[in-house]
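Put briefly, the fold is written as integer tokens. The lines below illustrate.
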Amino acid sequence: MDCRMTLHVDIDLSAFERNVAKLVNTAAPASVWVALKSHAYGHGMTELADNALRAGATGLAVLDIPAALSLRAHGVTATLFAWLHGQETDFAEAVAQGIDIGVSTLNQLDAVAEAGRLQKVPARVHLKVDTGLHRNGFTESDWVAACSAAAAHEKQKLIVVVGVWSHLADASEEADRIALSRFDTAIAAAASVGLKPTIRHIAASAAGFTNADARYDVVRFGILAYGVSPFSESSGQQLGLSPVMSLRSTAEVHDESTIRIHAGWHDGIPQNPKGAWVLVGGERCTVTAVHPLFTLAERPAGFDDGSSVGIIGHGGPSAEDWASWTNTIGDEIVTGIPVTSRRVFGG
């Protein structure tokens, strides 16, 4: 039996739109950008882009410029924000296509300004300040100099600073309070040198859902839009959201006590789960081993070869369940389903 043909990754577009609409309502009056990074957390970037906008998002956030250009080529005319750049990043094409560009270093700022010069149109820039996560961004000590350099480029009409942004660590309420204070100070410093950004954004899923003070002008909702919770104490469904991805396969008898499921860690099933189960014929069956191309689980009574197995969703465990069984986060579970596995879009 061909194991690959029995694996189904189902994407519920209606659930996705309901989630986005709920998040738009939660964040108001701030706008919402839906993060489509990492192939939309494994769900399908171009396939979900239009649904996110139809549900009320005003923009889309991706990691890099090639992804943003792909969405523009797909026909997306809304705001596209990209912020992770390499030495070979094509800023000129990004400027030509009206991509909003996150800038974290002076070298990036100068390169984006040069792209604006080449394209004869101001580049749309979001300056990033490091407020404590230390992922990237201008440090507090470098911030005023960065803003001054950006203001000089603005005067030459090479760029326009449309945004100031950052990432929250979401480590604790106190850590977030300190980060927000630093963010407010950075916004004031930008204004002091003549910058007039209209898009201030720092919150992603966790802070955007729970902390009104962190929402500013835009919230970048990521994993919550896909119905997966960023919080260890509650699932997406407990937050009123619906899981978008489900994973199912078929199985056959392996031996007297075990069934062989036609999906393994090659298909994104996490290795070495502790306490994992799958749903077979309405019965929870304990997972006993995960191999590259198949998974073994306890054999339920009355099992028939070819029976359907709910691995994620379909009445079976959630992505958060698998995360708890493997000491990781739900993002990693859904993003870990290979992009080569066929997605079936419905709902």
